């Protein structure tokens, strides 16, 4: 089974990275996609949003430093087809310590290698901290693609050029030549405001089909779910937020499967379909 490693990243804080990573992971699991969520943020919000404790020595930290195998840090969440590598506070120290190691950018890539080889998961989602520091750079160097949550607010586009520029740099520098943008997801959309509508329209006009059709609304239930330690699909399964993330995960699955078909030696769908779809989502960004 091919494993797709997706970094959920945006250097800007509070844009919906963790909400998107946790909700998508739960939806993929619901969809029988075996999924691993790696909490790479020392804040540990994804860990607590799934009702799990941060555990000293139980995160990705030891493995980044060359210690235990990441397979040992995997914990079941109790939600269908969804496992977690939790965070711990010491992950903040990893920023400092990993930087001193050889191949410091490729540490997470090496760490995830046995997981990819094991074929145990269809998707590995990596929830990144709000910076372009060593941890996020490791995630971008390890991933097949990056999913960028973007809050519907003023200056959204400016922040986007920073992360897309970094993706381009990693490709050009050879750290991850095949890294692509999986998609941009607009979050916290408030249809009552002109601002939200304007931001979505601006982002779509610049980034076209790289932007997911699904727009995640700002809802009270999505804001509440983490404090109950439950993904939105469990906290309020019929809510607008749950429906939006289910629709988004369907879109993601379509993108993943289209790519896999395109990469396979004997395409099962007409070549023209593959080309038109992949050319939309290769992450070749303007500007
Ligand atoms: N669609 C939404 N509707 C309502 N509240 C939301 C929504 N998405 C996220 N939130 C809330 O906004 C806050 C920030 O979201 P989240 O933690 O997902 O962002 P983040 O990008 O991971 O933040 P950080 O950069 O600190 O890691 C959280 O309190 C979360 O519950
Ligand atoms: Mg977060």
Q: What's the short story on this structure?
A:
This protein is α/β, with parallel strands linked by helices and 287 residues long. The chain has helices at 17-30, 45-49, 61-64, 91-98, 107-118, 134-142, 156-172, 194-207, 220-224, 232-235, 240-263, 271-281, and strands at residues 4-8, 35-39, 75-76, 82-85, 123-127, 145-151, 180-187. Mean pLDDT is 90; it is low at 267-287.
Outline the secondary-structure elements.
Layout (H helix, E strand, L loop, with lengths): L3 E5 L8 H14 L4 E5 L5 H5 L11 H4 L10 E2 L5 E4 L5 H8 L8 H12 L4 E5 L6 H9 L2 E7 L4 H17 L7 E8 L6 H14 L12 H5 L7 H4 L4 H24 L7 H11 L6
Parallel strand pairs: 1-5, 1-6, 2-4, 2-5, 6-7
Antiparallel strand pairs: 3-4
Bound molecules: adenosine-5'-triphosphate and magnesium ion.
Plain-language structure description:
This protein has 287 residues and is of the alpha/beta class. The chain has one domain (4-273): Rossmann fold (3-Layer(aba) Sandwich). The protein has twelve helices and seven strands. The chain has helices at 17-30, 45-49, 61-64, 91-98, 107-118, 134-142, 156-172, 194-207, 220-224, 232-235, 240-263, 271-281; strands at 4-8, 35-39, 75-76, 82-85, 123-127, 145-151, 180-187. A seven-stranded mixed sheet has the order 3-4-2-5-1-6-7, sandwiched between helices. Helix 5 packs parallel to helix 6. The longest helix has 24 residues, at 240-263. It is globular and about 50 Å long. The N and C termini lie far apart (36 Å). Residues 267-287 have low confidence and may be disordered. Magnesium ion (MG) binds at residues 17-18, 41, 45.
């Amino acid at each position: 089974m091919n494993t797709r490693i997706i970094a959920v990243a945006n250097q800007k804080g509070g844009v919906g990275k963790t909400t998107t990573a946790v909700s998508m992971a739960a939806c993929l699991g619901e969809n029988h996609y075996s999924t691993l969520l790696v909490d790479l943020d020392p804040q540990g919000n994804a860990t607590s949003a799934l009702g799990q404790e941060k555990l000293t020595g139980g995160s990705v930290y030891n493995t980044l430093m060359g210690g235990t195998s990441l397979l040992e840090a995997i914990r079941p969440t109790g939600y269908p087809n969804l496992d977690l590598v939790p965070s711990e506070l010491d992950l903040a120290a990893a920023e400092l310590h990993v930087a001193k190691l050889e191949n410091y950018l490729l540490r997470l890539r090496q760490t995830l290698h046995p997981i990819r080889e094991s074929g145990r998961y269809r998707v590995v989602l990596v929830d990144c901290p709000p910076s372009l520091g060593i941890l996020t750079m490791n995630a971008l160097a390890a991933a097949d693609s990056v999913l960028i949550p973007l809050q519907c607010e003023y200056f959204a586009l400016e922040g986007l050029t920073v992360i897309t520029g970094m993706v381009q740099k990693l490709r050009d520098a050879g750290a991850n030549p095949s890294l692509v943008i999986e998609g941009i997801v607009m979050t916290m959309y408030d249809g009552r405001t002109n601002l939200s509508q304007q931001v979505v329209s601006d982002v779509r006009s610049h980034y076209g089909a790289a932007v997911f059709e699904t727009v995640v609304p700002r809802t009270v239930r999505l804001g509440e779910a983490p404090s109950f330690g439950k993904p939105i699909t469990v906290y309020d399964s019929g809510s607008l937020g749950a429906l939006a993330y289910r629709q988004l995960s369907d879109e993601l699955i379509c993108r993943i499967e289209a790519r896999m078909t395109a990469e396979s030696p004997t395409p099962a769908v007409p070549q023209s379909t593959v080309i038109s779809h992949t050319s939309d989502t290769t992450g070749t960004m303007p500007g």
